[in-house]
Amino acid sequence: MTKSMSPKTINKAKTEMSELKTKTKKSVKVIKKLRFDSSPESLPELKEIKRSPFGFALKLALIVVLGIALYLVAQKYRGYILAGTVNSSPISRWELNQKMSEKYGKQSFDEIVNQRLLDAELKKNNIVVSDKEVSDETAKIIKEYGGEEAFKAALSQYGLTEAKAKDSIRQSLSLKKIIEKNYKIEITDDQVKKYFDDNKTQFADKKFEDVSADIKNTLYQQEVYTKTQEWFTGIRKAAKIVPFI
Question: Crossing angle, helix 162-182 and helix 208-238, to 10 degrees?
Fold first, then answer.
């Protein structure tokens, strides 16, 4: 059985429904105005900005600055892309690298491999060459050449800088240390005497006693070099080297 509503309740419900409809209509009008009213009058601030030349000038300045920056960067680092030009025709770095790789690729690859293997062995054997050792050895070499000027002339002849020469000296000392650690090198008096007798014309009127120390050092260096070649051959065989050139 359905419960009947009193006239008072019905009137109250009608009043609430009417108020709800009125509020809904107002809300819809506000939403429509916000969504669709895009006239200049409704956006006074934007209208004012559009008329201002400051925004355009700022954009133009930024574009100019960016263009100059890109040009300067391109000029500074163009060598990474281009090797040069001939009659305005560009020669790419890739083209140059290809040509150099064909001509010197294997030699350069082997040098890099040897350096990597040497660095690894030096680290494994805790071998370090100090700056003082390099300086002392450099001084000895300069003395052997007869002075600073003769030494620099020799560097120039071979296209070396002093820095490159010191790097080479450091590497030689490193190799010497690692060879001395892995091999027992001894030069006997008999070897020294034999060398003197076999090369008397080289020593002219010098006595054996005066040159024996130099001969022994020469023979020692020769033996170090021989053992170095032997040692490098061994570690290269043990290494996994995979060339792609």
Answer: 80
